[in-house]
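Lab meeting tomorrow. Please check the following:
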Amino acid sequence: MSANNSTLKPAVLVVGAGIMGAGIAQVAAQAGHPVHLYDMREGAAQSAVEKLHASLGTLVTKGKMAAQDVAALLARIVPVARLQDAADSTLVVEAIVEQLEAKRALWLQLEDMVDATCVFASNTSSISITAMAQGLRHPERLVGMHFFNPVPLMKLVEVVSGLHTAAQVANDVFFLAQSWGKVAVHARSTPGFIVNRIARPYYAEALALLQEQCTSPVVLDACLKAIDFRMGPCELMDLIGHDTNFAVTQSVYQANFFDKRYVPSLLQRELVDGGLLGRKSGRGIYDYAEGAVKPQLAAAPTADFPARSGVQLHGSGARMDAWAQQLTSAGVAFAHDRGADWTGLSTPTLQLRQTDGLTASSLGAHVAVFDLAFAPESSRVLAWAPSVRASAACATEAQAWLSALGYQPQQVADQSALVVARTVAMLINEAADAVQQGVCTVDGANQAMKLGVNYPAGPFDWLAAWSAQGVIDVLNALDAQYGGERYRVSPWLRQQAWAALGSA
């Protein structure tokens, strides 16, 4: 294959006719390639083509595809009963069971059938490409080509290089994926690659907060959807299936030699052991039985601004600018200390501080903390926590201020970094380590997370809206609270903080 030949039309063999394999065959054929589809299960390849015919027919009925285009696409996909029938292939994409030995056995079998220039691409989501290539006569031709489900709709393809993968092979597959209408990103073969690695904290921090009984699943989900995640972590794990999510976490944990950053959750293991796998079992974190009612957020009462004298804003940024405008519009007199070393609002009886990772209880008796947000705030759900030493009146005042400022405040336990700040800091930190270790680039990480798992922003987009030192402060506070290795700061992130200091 040649990366620079835009008219390249390799003969493609897709091995595995399940959901992923059928989807890969569809996008390859839609791009104009002749495709052979093989599955070791008798009749499975033919059945997959028939299902594809039915699903594409629905698109024709809805006017989303032309009948002649569907006919041409389907004509390019030919089911084969034997691998030997596709010996002229120049690209093999494997989408079989996620087991190393099964994949390695397939490649060894194919080496005796196809030309030495044929490229081998595995759709594995987590298995080492280096390990898979062991024993091949031509390990340099094996590369990862990780698609996301559903393949025809999801834009991302991780192009994963093992130690033996030739740079030309990786580049050829990269540009080929682009010609198939995908956004390709290069990745190095390390546990979880890009997406499955960087995404671990989204689930892990939610499970940790639930295990510590800091809040409820519905509040966790609402807080993260407030910064435009399409699904909260509890909803998403229920959709994925806790057995699948737990297995991936275990795989990444074991492959990283039991690094505490990736330690699986006891709570999730209990869900799996109890058969509470999520939507597919009818119950997971939420109950999906017929007639079950999903818990709803507690409605916070609306409130007027509770103080009319001695009000002061602290710090700068979009949120403080918005608050200043709201106070002015409401006729509330206030001072504004833009140079303060914390962000929030104070009255003679309250400090209401945006979290920097420290708990309200560690900051004083008349303190409440509220969560981070990223502008623009499309939802007003906001986690907050009063000091355990705060009086009832102080806590009531804090909630009243947040309500008057237009939020739907949700009280959680006074734990370090609350919900959003804790989760996003860990996502940024994991991405920073991936870049530090050469797994991907900054741009590759951003694209992978936005396109592979539909994040509202990439980890480095969030970093640009925050600051390296702000993230470090949150991680240090978490580390001080919990100890161990989980919240250690990435060296890459420390370097960014030092660089931001300039020559001062």
The chain has three domains: 12-195, 199-281, 311-411. The two ends are 52 Å apart (CA to CA). The chain is about 40% helix and 15% strand. The mean pLDDT is 94.
